């Protein structure tokens, strides 16, 4: 290795390395930096839980160097998905910020089929909404004091068995999922209860809401199978109260007997 002590040899080696770096390594590095690729970027504010639509995002061309591996590069991979976090204009769309299903706190709003509607009623006092203990999936009865100004407190036959699909605090977050609630919100009481109702039921609920007089009583909490039996009984009652027009092939003249399995209130005395 004595030749390395020769300054001329060292100088030649250094020059050779410099030329290699300048004419081989540097062009390759610059080529990598200058390479372009299309990515999806946020065009306007997107809140967590919102479904991604065309006006929310745009495709832009950027340098591909040092891009995250999980950046979304195609609009098709983003449109129709749901935001898992808040995003601001200019943010890259990452696949970790997208989800195939809506957030749990409002997922029930995406399961409507058109046959029934989601309708919220205000909880005027702590006792009106079962002391804040209602949760999604509960079956409740709606109690109407001074119903239709007749002086009697009744459970309208249209509202004997109604399913709760959401319980929401005044902050706008659902109290029965816990998602989105801050520590200071954890003790907030429900402000509204969202019910799954038919058009006929929604009309009656709107009147009770306007009067500011309604109470909710818990009928059943348990398996979906048993809860469905209560709703089936209510649907039969509605068909009897609001029969289909003559000649309608879907008309069913069935009774409205409540569930008779062991979970129903009517079977407790048997």
Textual characterization of the structure:
This protein is of the alpha+beta class and 270 residues long. It has two domains: 36-99, Alpha-Beta Complex (Type Iii Antifreeze Protein Isoform Hplc 12), CATH 3.90.1210; 105-267, no CATH class. Helix content is 22%, strand content 19%. The protein contains three helices and nine strands; from the N terminus they run αββββββββαβα. The strands form three sheets. Strands 5-8-7-6-9 form a five-stranded antiparallel beta sheet. A two-stranded antiparallel ribbon has the order 1-2. It is elongated. The N and C termini lie far apart (104 Å).
Strand content: 15-25%
Question: Helical segment tally?
Answer: 3
Shape field:
elongated
Whole-number tally of structural domains: 2
Radius of gyration: 31 Å
For the largest beta-sheet, the strand count, sense and barrel status come to: 5 strands, antiparallel
Which structural class do you get from the secondary structure elements?
alpha+beta
- Report how far apart the termini are: 104 Å
Task: Return the string of H and E elements.
Answer: HEEEEEEEEHEH
Fraction in helix:
10-25%
Strands, total number: 9
Low-confidence stretches: 249-256
Mean pLDDT: 79
Spatial order of the strands forming the largest sheet: 5-8-7-6-9
